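Q: Here's a chain of 240 amino acids. Please give me its 3D structure as tokens.
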Amino acid sequence: MITYTFSPEIDEADHEQIVCSRLFQDWLAKVSANFNVTAIHFSSVDFRFHSKNPLFIKLTATATLPDGKPVHGIVLVRGDAAAVLPVLWCEGKPYLLLVRQPRFPIAQTASLEIPAGILDKSQNYRKIALSELEEEAQIKAEDSELIDLTGFWHEQGVNGFAASCGLLDERIRLFAIERTVTREELAAMDNKEQTYTEEEEWIRTEVLPYEEAAHKFVDGKNLIAMFIYERWLKAQGRSL
């Protein structure tokens, strides 16, 4: 039996919605399979735009390993995500199509990243990867074009890599897509702006040579995607 408590700033009318939400219940099912959880205190909750579905849940759990050893229980529950590495081949050379956007938590006004997004209620990684690719990078692609990097690297049973396993529950499934483009098409993909005021997203595309790009970002998912993509290429008998 788990005891639930809530911070005073969380509206009492939202308590049941939070505990019963898919976001929380999916996380709880995974945790309960490996740990003994006796209490959970909800510190804060952020809801999705125009709904009462939790987007981020910060909580502190009282939990132990099966042998009774206590564990650190502070968690930011946000669910899983998908990201896609867009590789553009132009005149035999690889380029990356990236997006720049503000990232307040790391104090960067223009963080350089690959397109990515949190899973929606469909829980479909491939759908989200294609959606974010079109929304952020302005590339419309078919499902058959997606290269499942996570599936290639881990084979079965792993949904993605842990983004920050000391705090976040999030696992990111990585994909790649390849396109052969002309010099003119490459130039047209660079420096395109997308604004999503409702979600406070201010995005600009940037095209960079593959190796140059690798030295210009701090986002871990970019480097991991490149690492696996290069090994996928090798498995295909190809190289950069």
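Q: Can you summarize the key feature?
A: Helices lie at 15-20, 22-32, 125-137, 149-154, 183-189, 210-214, 220-235.
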